Amino acid sequence: MNAIRGLLAHHKTGRGFHQGQVVSASVDDAVQDAARNTVKLLSFNIQVGINTQQYRHYLTRSWQHILPTSARVTNLDQIARLISPYDIVAIQEADGGSLRSGFINQIEYLAHRARFPFWYQQLNRNLGRIAQHSNGLLTRQEPLDLEDHKLPGLLPGRGAIVTRLGSVDNPLLVVMMHLALSQRTRNNQLAYIRDLIEGCEHVILMGDMNTHAEQLMGHSPLKGSDLRPALWNDNTFPSWRPRKSLDHIFLSSSLAVRDYGVVDFALSDHLPVSVEIELPEGFYLTTPV
């Protein structure tokens, strides 16, 4: 398991971005927020910035999976405003910069607009100029290290981003993932992730897990682990009439939940999930000035 160092982009606050001005925000406020012993988490499957509000949009707006539209940038700006109050954000189903996104790396764009100094784009399925299927992780804390993992499965395209924050001796381990649709493959992927986190005391799993928390806790490699979901029966899909709970944030018992919920932000076909956690006593995440 090789740590990928130096690939996490560090962009200094105040630089412009080619699609517009950086959203104004106070750097001091960001530092103060990150220095507290509470951390705000958000996970969101953004569906490449496509606004899907009805089942028929899967057909009528399917062309947006191939071709660009000016509405996509407007949608990304809305997402940037949504994520800006958070400390750690996991993004699924982004585009890394192809024709359909107007050659915009959507993870980079969101990081600039929401003023995240550290971000990473994971390319999972490379279709060249047509599509760059990606996940992303944005954080206000400088990671100790970061690892890019391709998850097992018959078909390519599923991945996990693993990063460590805080103390070298006893870090906070954050794993962002997008799991498979089939239970068998999903369990193989969770077994792989379980091995990655073995021996770590403070763990966060977050992402689109494509199944309900009950199944993950009762019929997957997470059964019997120290992890539990912050949300149980909170449905996130489809966003306009949620009937399935597919998006989750799992936490180790050392991390106390202060607030949680599904965010009322029906832009993608998934709704975001949000959790505020309290770190163990004496454990702080600080952002260097």
TrEMBL record:
Recorded hits in InterPro entries, A to Z, give: Endo/exonu/phosph_ase_sf (IPR036691), Endo/exonuclease/phosphatase (IPR005135), GPI-anchor_lipid_remodeler (IPR051916)
For molecular function, the Gene Ontology terms on record are: endonuclease activity
Q: Which Pfam families match?
A: Exo_endo_phos
What is the protein name given in its UniProt record?
Answer: Endonuclease/exonuclease/phosphatase family protein
Q: Which domain of life is it from?
A: Bacteria
Keyword Phosphoprotein attributed: no
- Write down the species: Kistimonas scapharcae
Coiled-coil region: none
The Endonuclease/exonuclease/phosphatase domain covers 42-270
Q: Which UniProt keywords apply?
A: Endonuclease, Hydrolase, Nuclease
